[in-house]
Amino acid sequence: MGRFNTKSLSISLLVLCFFALPHTALADCTGQQCIESGQWRFGLALGVGAKSNPLVDGDAIPLLVLPDIAYYGDNLYLDNTELGYQWLQSDTSAVDTFVSINSEKAFFTFWHPSNLLLPANNAFNQAVGPSNESPYDTRRVSIDDVQSRKWAIDAGIRWHIRSGNSQWRFTAKTDATGVHNGHQFEVGYRYHWKWQDWQVSIAPGITWKSSQLIDYYYGIYPQDNLDSTFYYQGASGWQPTMAIGASKAINQDWQWLARASYTWFNSGMTNSPLVDQSFTRAVFIGVGYVFE
User: Fold this and answer.
1) What is the pTM (predicted TM-score) of this model?
2) Domains annotated on the chain, with CATH
3) 252 burial class (0-12, 13-18, 19+ CB within 10 angstroms)?
4) What is the annotated signal peptide range for this record (predicted)?
5) In which band, very low, low, confident or very high, does the pLDDT at 110 lie, cut at 50, 70 and 90?
């Protein structure tokens, strides 16, 4: 395979996208991480994990069974919740445009592609730790008491740069459905290396979210049917994140998987009476299987 495929990590159906099997179609990829051009890939990760929910009365999201679906043609690709087209490709860079499901609603409803379709319970809440005590304890608002937030579809453009074991990704997205009319800009970096029989990666990043996006999901207004003392207008800001992952081949089809991530929210979001934590964190340990 002689071209650069931009999807070094899967955009997972589940929980902020990176807990599924990692996808690569780089010229130097090997084994379970490769996707042949023009071929479908179906995978499944089984294990134990959870993702914390930063909202008041929001249950932690269990991570037990994580499906993974991907297809890459010469230019067109489907990677779980993202459908895109690669316009420019080389061994070191690529540019693609895409549409994808916005993950913000995942905190408000369990029936979102970013969440596992299994019931949450106290064991998973304990696995990711207790909520921070909110500075707005006297005026907290449960997600059960506000109007439902809508799904949104993002449209965006992404530029990838690869050099050796390092990859940079620059992404700009906007609401294509008119739900919140907000925007996002992301800068991500990933470095991977081999340690004994393990493939290890570290991926810091930072995302800017516009005031329209944050205000729609975390603002409180008359339509929420609450007292005016609870009203809140969200504000834009930067949200840094850090993720680490590791995988080890068991055989041709199976591999060990481990992943952990931590994201810090900006004050324009955390000052909302809806928000109980200034962060979200996730962890998953299990095995992955690729269907031939």
Assistant:
1) 0.81
2) 31-291 (2.40.230)
3) exposed
4) 1-27
5) low
